[in-house]
Amino acid sequence: MATSGKMAGCWVLPWKEEENSGTNTAGTENAEDAEKIEEEENSQDKIIVRSNGTVTYVGKDIAYQLWKFGLLGEGFSLPEVAECA
């Protein structure tokens, strides 16, 4: 869960497209530069649940894939729908 910044209160999945993004944090001169670098690093992160409790598409898709592959366990099930006559 993110505790600061624009994603505060959200469940966040850290995401990086490539290992070496070219961002160099060594020798950062001031707090403003450090904040800018952190914002750039977090720009690819995926929000799973918003701070208001709403699940995003990414979060729902992750749950669906886990269910599809049988990885959610016995505690997760959907109620059976009654058949129409």
Describe the structure.
With 85 residues, the protein is an alpha+beta fold. Helices cover 28% and strands 8% of the residues. It contains 2 helices and 2 strands. It has helices spanning 31-42, 57-68; strands at 11-13, 46-49. A two-stranded antiparallel sheet has the order 1-2. The longest helix is centred in the middle third of the chain and has 12 residues, at 31-42. The radius of gyration is 19 Å and the shape is elongated. The chain starts with 10 loop residues before the first strand and ends in a 17-residue tail after the last helix. The model has no long low-confidence stretch (mean pLDDT 75).
State the main characteristics:
85 residues, single chain, two-stranded antiparallel sheet, 28% helix, alpha+beta, 2 helices
Topology:
Blueprint: E1 11-13, H1 31-42, E2 46-49, H2 57-68
Antiparallel strand pairs: 1-2
Pairing-aware structural class of the strands and helices? alpha+beta
Q: Got a strand count?
A: 2
What's the end-to-end separation, in Å?
A: 47 Å
Counting DSSP H or I runs of 4 or more residues, the number of helices is 2
Q: Specify the oligomeric state.
A: single chain
Arrangement of strands in the largest sheet = 1-2
Query: Percent of residues in beta strands?
Result: 5-15%
Order of helices and strands: EHEH
